[in-house]
């Protein structure tokens, strides 16, 4: 049971408006927790969200702590609202902004995990990625943590500690049961347990819960591995055969 932690929507998720000091404290906390567990994670940044110096500092902190940063597009639009050439320009625009944080390998994650609404479009989008030497980085354990984060931030803003604690408890249980679900689904579909890619977002909820989540995941048998090790598994080299247009786990694509 191996998994890699991936974190979308760097420098900071836009679920709600957060102050610069909240963002800084969340990012610092997440970095400290990852360090405590000796985890190298892979974050995905949105070009358009890297404007002010406070946001750039968050990326610097994450990068300097030894984590990888990938391209999550410039505008964070869903690909079905774009032409292929718009997709490519958007990718390149983000690439230029993020160049100072990307290392020798380039990683890309589609916003909302959506890859296009026809096999031909999807194939051509993937061709654009490989032409620019990106490693497409899907997700196998697809968590909707942002839904919990919305409710959690609302409860915190209302100073409703009781509600906030209840959301934390249900969120932690949700992470553990969802991870177990995808672990079992992979065994059923593939006959073995591949290294999983777990999706989190850079948000306040994860800032407050990451330590409990990692402790619980470890307790039920998960081991944390670096992104490059996970992505070497053959399932991440396969073509998608998923015909729908939703953002789904990679297990449904192969
Ligand atoms: Zn995103």
In short:
With 254 residues, the chain is α/β, with parallel strands linked by helices. The chain has helices at residues 20-36, 53-64, 84-98, 119-131, 145-157, 161-190, 204-219, 227-231, and strands at 2-10, 42-45, 68-71, 106-108, 134-136, 196-201, 223-224.
CATH topology (fold) name: TIM Barrel
Q: What oligomeric state do the depicted chains represent?
A: single chain
CATH class: Alpha Beta
Order of helices and strands: EHEHEHEHEHHEHEH
Sheet with the most strands?
5 strands, parallel
Helix content: 40-55%
Query: Strand pairing plus helix content: what structural class?
Result: alpha/beta
How much β-strand is present in the residues? 5-15%
Number of helices: 8
**What integer value in Å does the Rg equal?**
17 Å
Number of domains: 1
Low-pLDDT stretches: none
What is the rounded distance between the termini? Answer: 19 Å
Query: Got a strand count?
Result: 7
What molecules are bound to this protein?
Answer: zinc ion
Task: Please name the fourth-level CATH homologous superfamily.
Answer: Glycoside hydrolase/deacetylase
**Average predicted confidence as pLDDT:** 94
Account of the 3D structure:
- The model has no long low-confidence stretch (mean pLDDT 94).
- Strand 2, helix 2 and strand 3 (68-71) form a beta-alpha-beta unit.
- Strands 1, 2, 3, 6 and 7 form a five-stranded parallel beta sheet that branches. A two-stranded parallel sheet has the order 4-5.
- Helix 6 packs across helix 7 (204-219).
- The longest helix has 30 residues, at 161-190.
- The chain has one domain (2-252): Alpha-Beta Barrel (TIM Barrel).
- With 254 residues, the protein is α/β, with parallel strands linked by helices.
- 48% of the residues lie in helices and 12% in strands.
- Residues 8-9, 72, 76, 111 line the site of zinc ion.
């Amino acid at each position: 049971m191996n998994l890699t932690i991936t974190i979308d929507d760097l420098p900071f998720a836009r679920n709600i408006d957060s102050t610069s000091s909240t963002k800084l404290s969340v990012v610092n906390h997440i970095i400290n927790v990852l360090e405590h567990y000796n985890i190298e994670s892979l974050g995905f940044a949105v070009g358009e969200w890297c404007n002010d110096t406070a946001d750039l500092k968050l990326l610097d902190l994450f990068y300097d702590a030894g984590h990888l940063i990938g391209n999550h597009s410039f505008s964070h639009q869903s690909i079905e609202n774009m032409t292929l050439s718009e997709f490519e320009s958007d990718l390149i625009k983000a690439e230029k902004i993020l160049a100072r944080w990307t290392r020798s390998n380039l990683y890309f994650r589609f916003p909302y995990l959506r890859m296009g609404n026809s096999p031909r479009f999807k194939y051509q989008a993937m061709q654009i990625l490989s032409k620019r030497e990106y490693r497409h980085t899907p997700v196998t354990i697809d968590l909707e943590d942002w839904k919990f984060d919305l409710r959690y931030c609302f409860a915190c803003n209302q100073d409703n500690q009781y509600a906030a604690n209840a959301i934390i408890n249900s969120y932690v249980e949700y992470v553990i049961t969802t991870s177990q679900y995808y672990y079992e689904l992979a065994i059923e579909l593939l006959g073995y347990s591949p290294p999983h890619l777990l999706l989190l977002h850079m948000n306040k909820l994860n800032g407050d819960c990451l330590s409990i989540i990692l402790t619980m995941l470890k307790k039920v048998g998960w081991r944390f591995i670096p992104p490059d090790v996970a992505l070497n598994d053959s399932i991440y080299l396969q073509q998608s055969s998923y015909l729908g247009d939703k953002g789904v786990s990679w297990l449904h694509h192969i």
